[in-house]
Amino acid sequence: MFSLFKYHLRSVLVRWRSTLATILGLALVIAVFILVQSLAAGIEKSSSNTGDPRNLLVTRQGALAETTSVITRDQFNIIRYLPGVARDATNQPIASGDVLIIINLPRNNGTGNANVMVRGIAPTGRALRPQASLVEGRWFAPGKREAVASRRLAGRMANLQVGQTFKTGGVELTVVGIFDGQRSAFDSELWIDADEARSAFDRPDYSSLLLRPESDEALLQLKKHLEGERRLKVKAVREVDYYKEQTRTAGPIKWLGNGLAIVMSIGALFAAMNTLYASVGARTREIGTLRVLGFRRRSILLGFLLEGAMLSGIGGILGCLLALPMHGYSTGTLGWETFTEVVFDFQITPLLAAKGIAFAIIVGLIGSFLPALRAARLPVISSLKAA
């Protein structure tokens, strides 16, 4: 069997032009497949990388996201003073009533406007989100119409650098700082003072409430109490679990990637099949010689299948290498949960690369099956007589 493998390897090298065409065709298919799938992986990683497992996020019962939730000031005052909520050094509850507002801002590249998420947070809100660290300027001061922007959002939208101003809803805000969200969902947000956001944008209530329980046991008790209290009508989940659920944006991208891969793989499948049919036709006498030497039909079939799998495997590896330079590249898309700009990175993971190579090998095996079957069924005498 080893000698048969050496024969197919030498045949591939001798017919390098057709071999190269097959490999490049499959490589392009796999590169597109991996790139589109890496978009979805980037969105999922951004969401799963957000939040603190010690925090409890409270939203209105039935709300699918913070943007569709309402927490009244009465609810806010009741919940933050419940037993089990941690206190800071001044004996104040570690809790932040957040206000989420969607505004429209122009892009840096002049390609139009995009919706951007503005999050109003209390002073304790920064301590509840240790992922966000200031990298330039300073944090906003309450009552001064100031904002801080994520570094990656400031790189995509106009007028978000330190010292610049932007207008929205009749309000002019000055950017006084830039923070780094460490590739979390916070990279897609602007932050301002919560009470100022309620006043400036005429929002009487909060959108959500983020609080820090005293312990894991206190967290579970608070969650049970809040969801069992009919008077409040709220839902409480760990902050990390909430953001893990907010990955619906990745779904359509995955479907698009799978659809493109299927359509392109059909073309690659026929290209591989055509190449191997031509190879079988050019090697008719060689196949007959192999049969005379004692190789059985199933060995001939297996040999050509291995040849197809080898070529497609190389194509898959090359496709991964073509896509790899895009790993970590920052981009953005429309978030289906909030209809705002979602900033994330291409994430080409080892698992995704393995899926791409496996997909290429499957396409190669399917494309080589019929030519391999034809080669195995060639009559010995007529094969030897072939020109």
Short description, anyone?
This protein has 387 residues and is of the alpha+beta class.
Describe how the helices and strands are arranged:
Blueprint: H1 2-14, H2 16-48, E1 56-60, H3 73-80, E2 95-106, E3 113-121, H4 123-127, E4 133-137, E5 146-150, H5 151-154, E6 165-168, E7 171-180, E8 189-193, H6 194-200, E9 208-211, H7 216-228, E10 234-238, H8 239-245, H9 250-282, H10 284-292, H11 297-323, E11 330-334, E12 341-345, H12 350-377, H13 380-385
Parallel strand pairs: 3-8, 5-7
Antiparallel strand pairs: 1-9, 1-10, 2-3, 2-9, 4-7, 5-8, 6-7, 11-12
Helix pairs in contact: 1-11, 2-9, 2-11, 2-12, 9-12, 11-12
Provide key terms for this protein.
387 residues, alpha+beta, 2 domains, 10-stranded mixed sheet, two-stranded antiparallel sheet, 12 strands
Description:
By secondary structure, the chain is α+β, with helices and mostly antiparallel strands. It folds into two domains: 185 residues, no CATH class; 171 residues, no CATH class. The strands form two sheets. Strands 1, 2, 3, 4, 5, 6, 7, 8, 9 and 10 form a ten-stranded mixed sheet that branches. Helix 1 crosses helix 11.
- This entry's quaternary arrangement is single chain
Helix/strand-derived category reads alpha+beta
Largest sheet: 10 strands, mixed
Q: Write down the domain tally.
A: 2
Radius of gyration: 30 Å
Total number of β-strand segments?
12
- Overall geometry comes to elongated
- Rounded mean pLDDT score: 83
Query: How many angstroms separate the termini?
Result: 27 Å
Helicity level: 40-55%
* Low-pLDDT residue spans: none
Give the helices and strands as they follow along the chain. Answer: HHEHEEHEEHEEEHEHEHHHHEEHH
Could you tell me the strand content as a percent range?
15-25%
Number of helices: 13
